[in-house]
Amino acid sequence: MKRRPAETSLQIQVKLLDCKYLGRVMGAMRLTSAHRYVQKSKSFKCVLCFPIALCVLYFTSSSLQLLIGLLPMDKCSLESAKMLSLDNSVDTSLDLGSRHDVQTCTSWKAPIIWDGMFDPGLYDQTHKREGSSVALTVFAVGRYLDAYLSTFLNSSEHHFMVDLPVTYYVFTDNPEKMPDIKLAPQRSIKVIKVERHARWQDISMMRMKAISGVIESDIRHRCTHVFCFDVDQVFTGRFGSEALGDSVAVLHAYYYRLPRMWYTYDRNLKSKAYMENGDFYYHAAVFGGSWRSVKALTEACYQSIMEDKENGVEALWHDESHLNKYMWLHKPSRVLSPEYCWDTSIGYRTDIRVSRLLWAPKHYDSLRTS
What residues make up the catalytic site (predicted)? Predict the structure, then answer.
């Protein structure tokens, strides 16, 4: 995950305690109220930090995540999948009532895909009959290529859209170091050389421009759908055609059970990513949809990023902040559960029956350029 451009003293305390992501949650609490109480005195802030710091000392990351896992989710209000705003006719087969422990649809009638809701064979048959094909984009720049790309691609061959034609679009600054991957029939790799930016934040944000460009020049002539991934992940279970839709977002594993007031949206009024409230908090490590929808998203995010740059602003969570803003204004037609991008360090959750894509171990100190 990405770090904040600037860290508060509280966040530094949290990092010293090694409570992963607790700093981000605490930061969300402060950001939510900071703009309302900016006139509070510094002394009051110091007094406020003390009990919070004690709470951090008391709760380890594992116990905190256990408590978060007990927080209830909203429930789907639809009686039948026939009431959904359908991405595909096969969505009428979704069993929205099969998972009473989680939310299976959104307020705008889009499905939220969880294990147990769908028939994998039925989805695969439908998409094969309709001629669906998928472009997978991934960036492996700098030391990320050596550390993650081979594992990512090899695991994808076993789990990602295995019954459909897939073209991998690998963006890298070092094409000659591409690993040798044994591909199944109807699967191919295209390597695209990109510039290596000095800051990892710029690499992350500038991918929006690169993805938009390759959709226009190549993908739209070859594939019906596009999925965009961070490379520091590994597929561990079926990531199949049930995930295909016109506009697809994934619930962030660390936020899907938290109250909305704790979501870390960018609340800087000067940023194009600014948003006070939203529906969910989406993870930018995975997003997708039809090539038209992904092109529209990446173009809009890139434009917002460039406007921020011209104004001397950088969004709180970089491209992820801009993606969340876009998905709030343009609701996704399909939402994937955290099964589709899970972090095992969160610990056991009863609602995560299967993990389909896992965060790989992070080694930011040695991998990031700045």
Answer: 320 (nucleophile)
